[in-house]
Amino acid sequence: MPNVVDDIVAEVAALCRENRDGAVADYIPELASVPADEFALCIATTDGYVYESGSARTEFTIQSISKPFTYGLALADNGPAAVAAKVDVEPSGEPFNEISLDPVTERPRNPMINAGAITSAALIHGADVAERFERIRRCYSRYAGRELTMNDAVYLSEAKTGHRNRAIGHMLRSFGIVTGNPDDAVDLYFRQCSIDVTCRDLALMAATMANNGINPVTHERALATEQIERVLSVMTTCGMYDAAGDWVARVGLPAKSGVGGGVLAVLPGQIGIAVYSPRLDAHGNSVRGVQACSELSKRLELHFMHVT
Ligand code: GLN
């Protein structure tokens, strides 16, 4: 028998499907061909139950939703002090692909924008790009509770056209933030962005964060509790880029979006939410993703400032 959450998920999904605002990302040519009106909404609880609506099992690329997970792995590999020496935790108020460093600290402002994410990728341990990528892929798979794989077509498409990210990589190298080959760091970043996920996977990845780093279905640990706290803090202040303030005011949950159309949000201790809908707003956030999370937050009283 459907419970109250099933009903609310169905209501919010029906409302959001009406919204045709925004446009799919096309600066990565391969992303331009995704079905623009696809929609999925999933909620996974920390005891492993998953509510699914729409095309919850359709695969799409994780894109920038990869950033908090690689940042977490960089923290685990290097410790928080060594990571903080390379990438700050301050909101930038700038678009995700801004070619900039903080003028005073000469570090990327946070790991959720591309400059900070390429820095996190450069900090992942491993003998070469292949080994480092394999560690990242396995790490994301632990959060999702299944083997994730890379989408070659999207990877090749971004690798062919990603000049702006290469410029960021070389800027990081010139300031001594990246000390190895900057093209390797950018290549690793393109690969992590091209990992395929479903909306259900993202909800479970979010629920793993909500569950202090332990996947609620497989019970495997993906990250230590202290690191999860730091990752969620940065997602709260920086996860939605230059729309982070509006997001916190409206939704009040740590979150991350990607230009593939995914959004995930975390209510620590309770649930992970994921939405897939490829049309994006001017910030590169899924239009219906933002709408669905804000409706769910209101109806289920999820805002972290909400007092019952
Ligand atoms: N791979 C994409 C890029 O670097 C990710 C951006 C995003 O999802 N916001 O441009």
Automatic annotation (TrEMBL):
Q: Where are the transmembrane segments?
A: none
Q: What is its EC number?
A: 3.5.1.2
User: Which residues participate in substrate binding?
Assistant: 64, 114, 158, 165, 189, 241, 259
> What domain of life?
Bacteria
Q: Which GO terms describe its biological process?
A: glutamate biosynthetic process; L-glutamine catabolic process
According to UniProt, the reaction catalysed is: L-glutamine + H2O = L-glutamate + NH4(+)
Q: Which family does it belong to?
A: Belongs to the glutaminase family.
Q: How does it assemble?
A: Homotetramer.
Q: What is this protein called?
A: Glutaminase
Instruction: Provide the taxonomic classification.
Output: Bacteria, Bacillati, Actinomycetota, Actinomycetes, Mycobacteriales
